[in-house]
Amino acid sequence: MNRRARSHLLLLLVVMLAVAGTVAWQRWTLAPIDTAQRQQQEQQWLAVLPADRYDNQPLRSPLPLVEPQLRHSRLLSGFQARLDGTPSAVLLRVECQGYAGPIELAVAIDPQGRLLGIQVLRQQESPGLGDQLAEPTHHWLAQFSGKARSDTPDPAWALKRDHGEFDQLAGATVTSRAVIDALQDALRYFDEHRLQLLGQAPHE
Asked: Has residue 204 been placed in a domain?
């Protein structure tokens, strides 16, 4: 074997070792990365549930969702929180259409049909608007906590400028209306499917 052939063989071996090392590294790190991403996602989703509301792992308790296409939004998934073996909340993942693209929300509802919390999981609004919507310190979403269809009539689920009950996100009429409609959709779905979601008779 001449020198040129040996050089080519050596180069080929180096390339093969580099590829094998890269593949081995990816496989070795894939599981920890997936675990970290899943834990981060779970923390984000469960932020809508007060810690004293559950003692199970809600995201390990998925719910079958019938007719997930709602009036103004779409249900992506649902989960049940339990405390001492009793259903204590339902967590719905809802997608609606914002001004610039889809907005994905985590919506927690207690057994009486009241909103426990709302968390923005994903949004494509402009940076300033997206920060106002998703950043908890702006408190826009806080005005919906504790609301239920039983004490907030359907016409009230609108902006004050539309003769409703809720403040508008500054400079974001379309986004504000989309989120309000999605929350009303989620509460309506809960009320109509309470038996399936909680295993209880409809609340009187």
From this structure: no
